[in-house]
Predict the structure.
Amino acid sequence: MAATTPLMLEQTAQGSEPTGFRYTLGNALIITRREVRDSFRDWRIIAPIVILTFLFPGLAQFVAGRFAEFVAGYGADIIGERTIPFLLMIVGFFPISISLVIALETFVGEKERRSLEPLLSTPLTNTELYIGKTLAAMIPPLLSSYGGMGVYLTSLVLGDLEWRPPAMLVVQIILLTTVQALVMVTGAVVVSSQTTSTRAANLLASFIIIPMTMLIQGESVIMFLAPDAEDPNGIGALWAIIIGMAVVVFLLLRVGNSIFNREELLGRTIDQLNLKGTARKIWRFVLAVDDDGTPARNIVDWYRRGIRLSLGRLRSAVIVTIVVCIVALVAGYIIGQMPEWRLPLPEASNLTDTAQTLGRYTSIPLYTGGFRFFLWQNSRVLLAAALISMFTFGVGALVITPVVYLILGYLFSQIVLAGYNPSFLFAAVLTHGVVEIPIIILATAVALRLGAVITRPPEGITVGHAWLTAFGDTVKLAVGVILPGLVLAALIEAYITPRVVLAVLGG
Amino acid sequence: MIESHELSKDFGTFRAVDQVSLTIASGTVLALLGPNGAGKTTTVRMLTSILAPSSGWARIAGYDVVKQPAQVRAHVGVLTEQHGLYERMKAIEYLDFFGRVYRLDATERRRRSLDLLDRFGLSFALDKRLGEYSKGMKQKLALVRALLHNPPVLLLDEPTSAMDPHSAKLVRDAIVELQRDERTFLITTHNLTEAQQLADHIAIIRSGAIVASGTFHDLARQFVGDPLMELRTHGAFNGLATDISDLVTVEAAGEDWLRYRVADPYNTNPALLRRVAGLGIDVVTLSAVSQTLEDIYLQVVKEDEGLHNLE
């Protein structure tokens, strides 16, 4: 046996102390190098990469040429012209779809083969492992993607078509390809951390593939139909997609970073869906009056301690919601001040004219009557916000509800700018708003937490547990506060607000 | 050194490890025994800072498993239940990768790798992909990986399972040799003979809790009783059991043999031999009946089951 003086040990112990980006990246790249080398030894990965890099672009170039000739025969040259950049995007996209396979393989595959635990027993940090594996999943497909696009572009430039792509378009497609690869890999990390078998991961991967396919269809439509498609600076709408995808990548990275930890990776051992067990857990959270899950003794106890407990957990979500709503209100007011957004309001001699004028311009029913209408209107918007929030990491909640405040801010600015008396607007909004606004803020905060909790679960709590707790709080607050609040607000809006508005209008 | 105090781990409402307290001094081996699902692997994972304890604390080589996870993992060599090798790699590549992870320099990585591969008889397979290795070879390579960074603490889960007798002996010899260098070992195993051979201390875990711990002799005394002696005589004897009943309690007797338990063999056995000689009985042999760890383990499990049933 070799000498056992723990000299190296000291080096190792000291070696685990340094931090900083370079050190982290250095450690991450150790993982990346091994994984990439391993990927390139697997013919199942190499074969599609070679085919998609060298053969598929040639096929795409051939199709582009024939298609351009065909549609030119019918005088539809524009279709042919726009097919060429579209195929460039497809040539770039196909290889990155492999990144999903590699990501699932390197994370969940390693878990399945039990080779993850020795790696987790090393001094590498979760972040180093995460970065290392993410890079490893991205590098081969991205290289293939860039290579494929290079082959396609070269064949177009040098071939019969002699197509000269706008530089900005090439940059956009390269960026699109990169963010799409990032979305797929970061999404795969989330999927693989929640499963224990490659089979289960592949089944769950449809949650990534289906939205990506829809996105590609959307991008195709934009590339064919966007009014600024002929802009030499490229297609403007694609920038919006790139930025949107970058936001998704950021959120997925947060989710990945929070769930890519040793506890989550080794702790989860069950792939089966236990609906009964899950429902029981949620019910326990609904009844809970403390963090230990003690059930409420009676309804008074539930309101006194249980609701307060759930409200306490919402504190930061409520603050964020209030800030966003205020920003939306102010933004609406500021937008309304801009000359191009101003409504050409006619002179209004009195408040009744003002109300009628605004009602005509905005199509907003100042009074449509009906308690059920108001209740349904608010409930469905809040329900939609909650549902969309779950699939958008909370972003949906912060977009849907604050839009109302944006419109209110805008209306207020138009009234002020036209020199009208805004008091009827206050009467129409604030009478029931006293109840409705806090309830909407609370419901939005609940939806925000429901979506955002998975991006950063409380320390020491698994993502699944954190989400179930948030869902339990959602049910609790929806039943105990939000629904009764909406009923009350709808009653006021239906029966009291019209009278107040009429009183203000002098009717 | 390994220390843990009331270390517990809950998965939801299930308590996998329940207040495990261990102290394993440098240069000693503790064998953690228990049936499947008793909490051995979860305990090892907590000691490696892979799983966070729900309560209690543990220190490895002086480092806290919760507050200093990187230092803990740098000072621990772990042999996991499943070897978990990268099967498309070769042994040297594989060890080089882990050597880099442990921040060993290139020369040291190579030297340590070649030394250890030679020590465990794997030098002949350097050119083979790990997928081509036999089960035992894979297990040995996993052990080499655990030893690569020269850790003072080794946590070995079933170190000789899947090995042929020669390889298993190689590993046991290596453990004994490393123990002399003041390494601390925690071994979980179902091989009770091996545990008895290697371990200075034994702990038996059931349903997450330590139900017995101590040296082999402590456990034997506690669970099986005082040492059992067997006396064989030349020819049959009559009434001997009664004649020596003031000295020892006879547990069983035959025509020319009897077995008794004795708390203090150093003083009692010579007195007994004098008494037997005085009775004119010729003694052929007086020997200790060997007690195995298996006897102790089964007794502990039986007693624990009895307690559970009572509850």
